[in-house]
Amino acid sequence: MAEPVDWVLAAAALVAAAVVVLPRSLLPHTRIVQVMGFLLLSVVTSLIWLRLDSVDVALAEAALGGGLLGGALVYVASGPRRDRPSAAATGWLAPVLGTAAGAVLVVILASAWLRVEQTMPGWTDPLQEQLPATGVEHGITGVLLAFRAYDTLLESAVLMLAALAALALRQNTDPGAEPELASFRHTHAGHTARSATFSWMVRLSAPVLLLAGLWLLFAGSSDSGGAFQSGAVLAALLILLRVAGTAPRWLAPSHLNAAQDRLSTVPGRIMVAALVAGVVVFILAGLLGPLVGEPWLSWDPAWAFAVILTVEVLLTAGIAAGLYALYLALEDPRATGERTVRHRTKAGESR
Amino acid sequence: MTAAELSLGAVVLAPLLAAALAAALPHTARRALGVGIAALVLLLTGLLAVQTVAGEVTELALGGYPAPLGIHLRADGLSVLFLGMTALVGAVVTVFAAASRHTHQAFWTLWLGCWAGLNAVFVSGDLFNTYVGLELVGLTAVALVALGGRGSWAPALRYLFIAVLGSLLLLVGVGLIVSVTGTLDVVQAAEVLAGRPDAAPAALLALTLITVGLCMKLALLPMHAWLVPAHASAPSAVSPLLSGLVIKAALFVLLRCWLWLTDSSGALSALAPLAWGLGAFGAAAVLIGSVMALRQSALKPLAAYSTVAQVGYWFVAFPLLLEEDAAEGAFIGIVALALGHGIAKAGLFLGAGYLKEAYGTDEIEQLRGAGRQHPYAVMGMSLGLVGLIGLPISLGFTGKWNIATAAVAAEHWWILVLLAAGTLLSAGYAVRALAPLLLQESPTPGEARISRNYRSVPGLCVIGLGALTLVTGFGGVLIAEALEVGAPW
Known about the structure:
The complex is a heterodimer. By secondary structure, chain A is mainly alpha-helical. Chain A folds into 2 domains: 1-80 and 94-109; 138-351, no CATH class. Helix content of chain A is 71%, strand content 0%. In chain A, helix 7 packs parallel to helix 12 (301-330). Chain A is globular. By secondary structure, chain B is mostly helical. Chain B has a domain at 273-489. Helix content of chain B is 72%, strand content 2%. Chain B starts with a helix and ends in a 5-residue tail after the last helix. Chain B contains 20 helices and 2 strands. The chains are: A mainly alpha, B mainly alpha. At the A-B interface, helix 4, helix 5, helix 7 and helix 11 of A face helix 1, helix 4, helix 5, helix 6 and helix 8 of B.
């Protein structure tokens, strides 16, 4: 039965969601307040997942929804406002209709859901039987990297392609097309507007984050955690280092976007290699099965653990690189410091 | 493991591996890799087709884990037909992109990833895996639109919202089915549903959500507004892929869910109101889409509105799927129309993109007489339009014929009237698009001598698709036979 804490969580989730989605004509607030509502929503959602004993989902929600997406939203929300002059008279109509439609849908869905007899998932028993053969002990890792490895492979490909697309479109950006946005990014890129305190804080917390990320990765075989959660934490680490301006040069591919050299620089190559390595090795590992006459993506129990571990480590690198690349695509190529770095690199290469 | 079982995984994993590798390769190598993979996928699809012609469904439990724990790949007649259409159109467009100077260098990774996603949807035997495949298709398709430059970013973003919303509705529907059946496998879920009449309301709701979500991705009127700017502003090599192939993935999943999942569960008869609603929207799409196509002054928006109209035909036949004696004919008709549209519309869009690259515009008035300089491209477009109107010999004709006979069997006379009206209107926009191109004027009046372009590979690609429109027109019987393999009845 639902305990009081569950009611509190449910109410908090509703309030946070309302703050996010209600339009300004109904609830006067700023974009930053909306973003804060989103962050609150993601914290509450993580807690709800914990209450449902889904630690893996809670970790993923906290790292991806709260941490990375929240960071991106704060970044965008503190930028220049480019609202279109909205028709004030009908400003309330769309949200009210949307809310009504959503409410009707939820009622219908819930009534159908509650009326039918639920069936327990048919994979619970076979999962326990087959788990020892995979070499991992945690059921969720077994599902992600053995039983439904194909889904995981395609999902990692989605992230890889999203990151590559974002980088390609960033190269497409026409300089000078949007001066106000450029000046905003100019001050936002972290190269000018960082304080010494912030920089030191990042330096101090970086080892802790690195450790946390690696722990999530390697604990995943026997406990909650895994490539997605670990990759998200490591990406957060990279972004913090980047914002604080303390990243080593090979981690800060500042000229990733320069149209003339197109990812051909050393940091760009590292980035692309990290992005694609996980997917490439995953597919090649999947080919091991057909080579000995077994189906795709099947691994002999003798070396299944080694394969899964290799794939998981590389996927983590790919996920971290992918999320970091998505963040870099938000940044502007013309931010301060970029040009000097580029010149320095060119000089370094010529030497 | 047989060769067909090997191909079943390889049609997905080979293009996916190539997509990842292409990102790390220099530009010229990407072109070569793309063409090589196109040839490989054609070969692999051929191996699967041989198995289908022999009357067998190819099936493979990935990792050796049988469902419900693992994921099954399954290729029946429907899968192989869509795989084949994708392989043919994909290969021709790949050659076009490799030969065109305007191909964006990110095209290769995104298109090969999209191809992997399309094939993943077509061979998937698992509902959640289908969702993942559609995600792969949707995300890469959005990014491919955005390669069209700044002007295409707003349509791409709008497309992204629609694609994600459609996917979410699909996911909720799939979740509902899992909670009732305890399995994600299509065949197993259908078996459980057939044995549990009490689950019919949940199955009905799930199918409704899945249908609405997929109709958004299919741009069924009135949810079509995103399609026109997205397909019209995409790069030349991308528009044919979007209109010809990408929306077919959603249609495939819709047919899979309607005919396989609900087979004999009793939910299908309860779907009648939904089917009639879809039929009505489909009829409106045929009429409004065709009229809007007639009103366009540029080739690519005209072709995009023609897609809106053609989507309508597939849904007009949906009420027939519920009739005992008309279902099979309607099913064959929908599949034939969709396959024919895939090839013919790809040809039309490829030709329009070719002319846009050659003249810097796709305004029909400014392309007067373009047929003199680029006879192959304009000829290819004409053949594509033959298929879109539904003249014999083309799959468009086969499809309309099957739907018309099914409508007569079920005594739904309004469908005949609608097919006739739609055909007349499509002939109208075909003339509107083509006639100025065939005039004896030159689009570049300054030049005294007209050089006829008979050698360019992109032009040959366009006429290649046009020829395929006619050649596949002979395959109507083959389609009916292939659909018998693993048929839901």
